[in-house]
Amino acid sequence: MKKYYDLVEKNKQLVLDAEKYIWENPEPGYKEFKTNAYMLEQFEKLGYTDIVKAENCTGFYTVLDTGRVGPTVLIMAELDSLINTTHPACDKETGAVHSCGHHAQCAAMLGLAAALKEEGAIDNLCGKIKLCLVPAEEGIEIGYRKGLIQKGIIEFTSGKPEFIARRYFDDIDIAFMLHSTSNKNEKLNFILTRGHNGVIRKRTIVKGKSAHAGGRPHEGINALNAASLIMMAINSLRETFKEEYYARVHSIITKGGDAVNAVPDEVIIESYVRAAEPIAHKMVNDSVNRAISAAAAAIGCTVLIEDMAGSEALNEDANLREVALEVFEEIAGKEGYQYDSEWLASSTDMGDISSLVPAIHMYSTGAVGTSHGIDMFIKDPYKCCVNGAKAELGVLVKLLENNAQRAKDIIAKFKPTFNSVDEYLAHKRSINMEKDTVIMNEDGTITLDYKG
Ligand SMILES: [Zn+2]
Description:
It is built from 13 helices and 18 strands.
């Protein structure tokens, strides 16, 4: 395998330059215009002429055909940054910063793309290699994305479901990606986990009635007090979430009122509802929506609940994981990698891919600080991105060499969550909801209509 890893090594400067450029030009999801243009330019320079650009939004893909029949392997890198306005390296205007390290994924992807164009790189492989730059993994700026949905530009708040819905991935048989991470154990270079929670994104608009907050509060209906009760109601549900759900419900208030001397008549809450599998997820989400509706009604408010399908749970494919662990050992030695069997309660839209084809979400270390925190940066880009690219190439080679026997075995053993893209899309669309859930009837009764 060394000859393959050397092909990446040969292109390491390209990888390191990309890590630096994209770190310095962070852009949040569906706004990754500079990053997208930069990656496009680099791909074109490498000789990728057949590039399909996502219509109307950021992201693109290209397919490298070995010319021999075999499965199609999808490898992705995420273009988007987070927003942390207090991160020292954030964009001073937008607050954007790569505090989840997605810039490192793009850099590694370039190393892979460059290595695949080296002489002899794909001579022993069969099948097709689909390289894709995807937008918007981080589920932030929900209001902005809701606007894109209303304009018909996108259907989903996350890039991978969006690309699945656009049928960009109809031909894929197996998939993987690489994400940067930090770890206190300096010897570690690679980590794999068992999987991640799914997520439903929620925007709740609590509607009350404004009035003078000092002089005539009795004439108002306080939407902030209702929001406060909503938080309490959700908190009171937590003991009902079974451990195996891995449920997480967390919120922020993005609008708390207009003026301190007026009773707030509109408060906006953004929430995530996360859980480990679709049925539990629906149960938890329904109970959260009931709590929101009933707590609002208690104060005399109405609410508009907007549920948006986020990510499905990521179930790492155990057989594909075995391939990656072999590659990790080749690159980093016995002590250089770790399989962590813990289930992570965080979410990624790689889960959507894993609900359709065998998939893994590999981690490469070299970052320091807390993921999504104000101290996160890539301290060792060689370890993170150059070795990351080697890992991607190594897994790809092992899957597609020897007539793609390993890929074929993994695909044959795989049991998808959804049997088709259509079934998957029907499920995603069933989560989307936009509803006034508290109905004040003329006879004085209140109806709560909170189920999607
Ligand atoms: Zn991330």
